[in-house]
Amino acid sequence: MGMFQRDHQVFADAEPLDDSYEPEDIRERDEELEKYKRALQPIIDNRPTSNIFLYGKTGTGKTVATKFMLSHLEADAIEYDDVDLSTAWVGCENLSSSYQVAVALVNELRQQRDKDRISTTGYSQQRVFDILYEELDALGGTVVIVLDEIDNIGHSDDILYGLPRARSNGYVENVRPVIVGISNDFQFRDSLSPKVKDTLAEKEILFPPYDANQLRSILEPRAKKAFHEGVLKKDVVPLCAAFSAQDTGSARQAIRLLREAGELAQAAGSDTVTEVHVRDAQDEIEKNQLHEGMQELTTQGHAVLCALSYYQAKDEVPVRSRDLYDRYHKICERLDADSVSERRVRDHLSDLNMLGLINVYERNEGLSAGRYHEYELDVPLNAVLEVLLSTSRFADVANIIQSTANDNNRF
User: Fold this and answer.
1) Taking 60 as the threshold, does the pLDDT of residue 1 lie above it?
2) Cβ density class 63-77: b for 16+ within 10 Å, e for less
3) Given this model, what pLDDT does residue 365 score?
């Protein structure tokens, strides 16, 4: 027999446990879906439609709900002769400016029409916007533009000002662009410029973390499809739901935990998945979670982590936020990236603390200095640098920090 053999005793169909799986129905999001339906209804009524922004942490159902609603919207729009609907989806996880988002959107629209892509460099921003308006006008009707993880653009928010005003400014005649923004950052709207906030006039839908009962409801139909009958012990799904609810409230995390438990059972040659496999899977995932959490940070989150790593490398921690902000600002200048306010940097530090990546200390020096916070890494510096070195935009800065650490015998 070969080294690899097909499993016949644990998994019946592992696809429902894959991140890309799209369920037939969306569970535990009735209220959010109803708000979403009301926000999209004007498209079917063939009247102006507000932009829509979805907020919530990773794994709370924003993206899957959007795919679900748009698939129904597209199917239903076919029934009406006077509704001309198109959609375009751009993932912004590796895009940090309006220019980059506009180029990606142009190329997505051109791909739909079998046209050549444009280069990611060599154009002015206004020229890229002009091309974008031309492509949108050529489509006509209503175009729903989904910008997933839009918070990555930071202060470079010109596209969120230009698209909603394109029709009123005469840049387009035949099309109504509707933006659907998806953000993992609840404070993203606070970072937008006042003119963008005023122009967007969006409807907001918040996706809170799931509780244990909701996660159990989401896991059960997937587990039934994924595993052979009788394989899962009765406490497996509730335990996966409980672990994930206590940590992040993420359905993605709960599903991943269930899959990992199944894979551990399979590797052990067991014909059942038990509580022990879940606990072992939880330990395994926790080892990878910090690394993954760092990888999924936004550009601004990585810049803040870079700044703190610099002080960690120099052994000058814990460090006050005002000193940290100065280093953060220099890093943004070096990267030619937009910087955010010191208050927003403190928000990112709070997120890093919630992820378990840093420690925060509150100091109170009375009338002389008042109350303030200091910060330091709560994970090994080499683990942070490993992530930053694998992120192309931060590789050069990470190399400098690594050299600083070597000079200070931090490794």
Assistant:
1) no
2) bbbbebbbeebeeeb
3) 67
**pLDDT, tens digit, for every residue of 35-49?**
999 999 999 999 999
- The residue count of the chain comes to 411
Query: Which among 192-196, 266-270, 293-297 has the top mean pLDDT?
Result: 266-270
Number of Cβ within 10 Å of residue 35's Cβ equals 17
Q: What CATH number is given to the structural domain containing 350?
A: 1.10.10.10
Whether the CB-CB separation of 164 and 177 falls below 8 Å is answered with yes
Pairing assessment for the beta strands 371-377 and 358-364 based on DSSP bridges: antiparallel
Express each pLDDT in 270-281 by its tens digit.
Answer: 999 999 999 999
Q: Which domain holds residue 278?
A: 211-291
Sign, CA dihedral 18-22-23-24, equals negative
Same domain, 117 and 248: no
